[in-house]
Design brief:
With 661 residues, the chain is mainly β. It has 3 helices and 56 strands.
């Protein structure tokens, strides 16, 4: 059987190998392309996840900022002292229960050991973390400076007047409508023929000097000395220093005895005062035909001159009497030398211990007053932009939020100050001020020397007005809460201001006070007029910033401007001066001091902060000031405690500035 052999040529074999190599290379190229595409898609997805995670981390960090702000308001003064000790090298970690993915550390404060243990600023680093433990984990850290302020909820009666800084009184301050309000001064009270009448108590952290007739109240109290040199009427007098009475003295009703005089230092009565009891940790002296119907307790000597009598006394010093036959007699005992002669029967008891505990009166605390912090609540915020007045409008029904410019337009013998949406002032659809007549004076003007001037317009649209700089109100009637970062002066013919919460609902929300040509009215402040303005609710909405009811403020002046680079706060303004016949329906709140130069009537609380700290600025009431309250307002609307009545503290917190780390 024959076999056939086939030969394979070398050239044909080579062609097969080349084909296989080409296929192999093509496959590798496709594989590389596919793997590259997969890697690109995966990388893009991870970038998207990382970007999303970073966004979520920032959200968590800012959530932590708000949570900590609320947390700080729950802390006591002692708690804040602990946090105030934090430094960059000694950070204090805050535990945020119930908040996941957020950590916080206090890294600094403005506290100073010994002189300022309670901080007013805390620096906190807040970190938000998301997707922890995964490849997409992301963190974001925000450094925040919180501004802190202490307030006090008084256990006593509310304070109609809460003044910080000294008070010089040459006029009279009269409270009408209710007597369950206090008059408190964080400083000295000096009356130069001025009087304080109608308040439950008068309290000063410094001294009190009353040298005029007619001062009257249930309690007169001071952490310093008290001196009364003209007829006054108080049921109780308390002093952590000395008490000197040089004039006739009776109880609040004018006929009853003064119930109690209590002092940590000497008590000297040199007048025909009628008193029930005297307690002093110093010496006690009586003259001028004064009479004590109850008990005198003294840790020092007791001296009686021409007195009508002392029912009973005890003293740890000696007893001396210049007259031995007082009408009502003197009875008691002392640790030192006594006297028994005539109607005086004061024995000696070397073992006598007189129990007169040291008197402790509360400090007054105050909240910071800052017009800049209230800008966000303004319906109309006025600032200068070059030579143009820029008005930022917010929460006004029918007007878009944003910046506008003022322009005056005369129509049918009426001058309208309008809001223009462009700097060229070509589109001016909204009315701000109405001035009937051909007045040549702009009703709202700005002067680089004096600041803003409001001159008796026929009508100003209702809402919260905020001015950067000082403001003069020259006459007119306003249905507005008015806030200035500088000083405020009222003058002219009976300037009258109705705070939003003191004005009529039909005026604020329905424009009832406007001339008929400007009705129907729709540009009402929507943050104060709830729901439809055509339906009247019982009250306007309350807008609160800290412990300030914005709508209850008639006038507020002064504040701190923050330097955007250094973050330093610079105080400006803060002085409110009321001219003759000013009528203020609402709270008067001055970051520095208040002065009156003419008769004024205030239907609200008076609060000053003396935040300038200047020794040359003093609260001055040089004319008759009448405060009218109906007793229906809750709380005291201001910070501070009464005349030794006790108070519980609270803390307010706000973000001063922040930055990403």
């Amino acid at each position: 059987m024959m076999r056939t052999r086939h030969r394979i040529s070398v050239r044909a074999a080579q062609r097969g190998i080349a084909t296989i190599l080409i296929l192999l290379l093509t496959g590798l190229s496709l594989t590389a392309a596919v793997l590259g595409t997969v890697y690109y898609v995966r990388g893009t997805q991870e970038q998207q996840v990382s970007s999303h995670a970073m966004t979520q981390a920032q959200v968590k960090a800012w959530t932590g900022v708000e949570v900590i702000k609320v947390y700080l308001t729950s802390l006591s003064q002692d708690d804040l002292k602990v946090l105030g000790a934090a430094t960059k090298d000694n950070k204090i970690e805050l535990t945020l229960a119930g908040v996941s993915g957020v950590t916080a550390k206090v890294v600094g404060s403005d506290a100073v050991a010994g002189t300022k243990p309670v901080p007013t600023q805390l620096t906190v680093e807040v970190t938000g973390t998301t997707a922890g433990g995964t490849r997409a984990q992301s963190t974001s850290t925000v450094q925040v400076v919180y501004a802190l302020a202490s307030t006090s909820a008084s256990k006593g009666t509310p304070k109609a007047v809460n003044i910080k800084g000294d008070l010089a009184l040459s006029g009279e301050i009269i409270l009408k409508g209710a007597e369950n309000y206090d008059f408190s001064v964080d400083g000295n009270i000096d009356t130069n023929k001025g009087t304080i009448v109608g308040f439950n108590s008068i309290f000063a952290t410094g001294h009190v000097n009353l040298d005029s007739d007619g001062n009257r109240g249930a309690i007169l109290a001071a952490k310093g000395d008290i001196s009364v040199t003209n007829t006054s009427y108080f049921d109780v007098i308390k002093s952590m220093g000395k008490v000197t009475i040089k004039s006739p003295m009776r109880g609040k009703d004018g006929t009853s005895p003064v119930g109690l005089i209590y002092a940590n230092d000497n008590v000297l009565i040199k007048s025909s005062a009628l008193i029930n009891d005297v307690k002093t940790r110093g010496a006690a002296g009586f003259d001028g035909n004064s009479s004590v119907r109850g008990t005198v307790l003294a840790k020092g000597n007791i001296n009686t001159g021409s007195v009508a009598g002392v029912a009973a006394l005890q003293g740890e010093g000696d007893f001396t009497a210049s007259s031995y036959w007082p009408t009502d007699g003197i009875r008691g005992e002392v640790k030192g030398v006594g006297t028994k002669q005539g109607t005086v029967n004061v024995g000696s008891n070397p073992n006598l211990v007189v129990n007169v505990p040291a008197l402790v009166l509360d400090d007054l605390t105050s909240s910071e007053i800052d017009a800049y912090a209230l800008k966000g609540n303004a319906n109309y915020a006025f600032e200068m932009e070059g030579t143009n007045v820029r008005v930022t409008v917010s929460n006004i029904n029918g007007i878009a939020r944003g910046a506008y410019y003022l322009s005056e337009v005369k129509e049918n013998n009426v001058t309208y100050t309008k809001l223009c949406s462009d700097l060229a002032k070509s589109v001016c659809p909204y009315v701000l001020i109405v001035d009937q007549g051909n007045s040549k004076t702009s009703r709202l003007a700005y002067n680089s020397t004096f600041g803003w001037i409001l001159t008796a317009p026929t009508a100003m649209m209702p809402g919260v007005l905020w001015f950067e700089g000082s403001l003069t109100i020259d006459g007119g009637t306003y249905n507005n809460t008015i806030i200035s970062t500088g000083n405020i002066l009222t003058k002219g013919g009976s300037p009258t201001v109705f705070a939003l919460n003191s004005a009529q609902y039909v005026d604020i929300c329905q424009g009832n006070f406007l001339p008929s040509a400007n009705k129907p009215f729709s540009n009402y402040p929507s943050n104060f007029c709830p729901g439809s303005a055509s339906v009247q609710p019982p009250t306007l909405s309350q807008v609160m910033v800290g412990n300030i009811s914005v709508g209850s403020v008639a006038l507020l002046a002064g504040g701190y401007k923050v330097d955007p680079v250094s973050a330093n706060r610079v105080f400006s303004g803060g002085k409110i001066t009321l001219g003759s016949n000013s009528n203020i329906h609402g709270d008067l709140t001055a970051a520095d001091v208040v002065e009156t130069s003419g008769a004024a009537t205030i239907y609200g609380y008076v609060t000053t902060g003396h935040q300038s700290g200047s020794s040359t600025t003093t609260n001055k009431f040089s004319a008759s000031t009448t405060i009218i309250l109906d007793g229906s307002r809750p709380g005291d609307g201001s910070a501070g405690s009464g005349a030794g009545s006790g108070a519980s503290s609270a803390t307010t917190a706000r973000v001063l500035w922040s930055r990403y780390l």
